[in-house]
Structure formats: C-alpha cells, structure tokens
Amino acid sequence: MSLPRDAAGGAASVQKPALPGLEEQILASWATNAVAWTRAVRRGEILSRERVTNGAILEAIRDVAPRTLLDLGCGEGWLAHQCALQGIEVLGTDAVAELTAIATESAPPGARFQTLTYQDIATGSLNERFEVVVANFSLLGDRSLGELSSPCRSCSPPVAAFWCRPCTPC
Questions:
Q1: What are the beta bridge partners of residue 139?
Q2: Record: fold of 22-166
Q3: Contact 27, 95 (CB under 8 A)
Q4: What sign does the CA torsion over 36, 108, 95, 154 have?
Q5: pLDDT digits (tens, 9 = 90+) for 55-87
Q6: Distance CA 130, CA 151 (A)
Q7: Of 90, 58, 97, the residue nearest 71 (C-alpha)
Q8: Bridge-based pairing state of the strands 111-115 and 161-166
Q9: Domain residue extents for the chain
Q10: Which of 18, 26, 32, 66 has the smallest number of Cβ neighbours within 10 A?
Q11: What is the pLDDT of residues 158-170, one digit of tens each?
C-alpha cells in the first residue's frame, strides 16, 4: 500500500483523528449510561452510597442548615431531591442533559435543574446566590478543578460550606 503524495512529491503524512479529551470521554460515558446509573441509584444498588456516603453528606448539610444549596454535578438529582424534601431550595447543575432531564422528571418542590458545565458557571451563566455549594463525587478531569472555585463567587453571604469529593470515571 502506498501513501498519497503531497504537492512536493513526498509521501503525505497520515493525520490521525483527534480523540476527545478525558473530560469529554467521561461526559459521553455519563450520557450513555444515564438510565442505568439512575436505576442503580434509585434501587439502592450501590452499597457504599447506601451504607456510608449518602448519610454522611446529608448529615453534613443538615449541620449547616442552609436555606439554599447549589448541587454541582447533580447527576440524576438524588442529593438535590433529598435536600428539597428537607425544605432547602436547591439548584442542581450537570453538564449531561440526559441526567438533568431525569432529575427534573421526579423533582420535588424546591428542586430545580439546569444543564450547565463548570465552564458555563465560571463564565457567568449562573447568576444566583447560594449558602452552600456541594460537589458530591462530581469532579472530572483536570479542567473542572480549576473551574470549580467560580461558583463560590456567586455566593452571598460567603459560602457557609463547600463540600467536594473527587469522582472516578463511570
């Protein structure tokens, strides 16, 4: 097999298609697996969440007793739903439209959802104020960490609490 020739008569280089970055791959995976993930969460199939992490994050939020909360990377909406049921006004944001659609379908009063990336928020797409910001297993790749401080600028009074747990790709 011969390579095509470039204009100068030499063998043209073969361009490999660019692979999406890690964060794009992770987001694509979440979009593909949104229904399966939601089913697993709602059926209580993730034992570490059921036995430890769900209760721990809810207890930490209750200790601060916020009136408003921003759930960054809300996924299918579990945390936002739980907080709204406790009387907290919650906005859940996620970069994956499939997940925010699922979260919205069964949202209790007090829980709202928007499809926004951390970059969207960092560049001013979110003009609300929150007492507490939570990123519960929702940090992806390198860029999201740098963009994460921006929502804190949207908080007034200053953030009472900010919880962040890193995420591993699904």
A1: 166
A2: Rossmann fold (3.40.50)
A3: yes
A4: negative
A5: 988 998 999 899 999 999 999 999 999 999 999
A6: 9
A7: 90
A8: unpaired
A9: 22-166
A10: 18
A11: 444 555 544 444 4
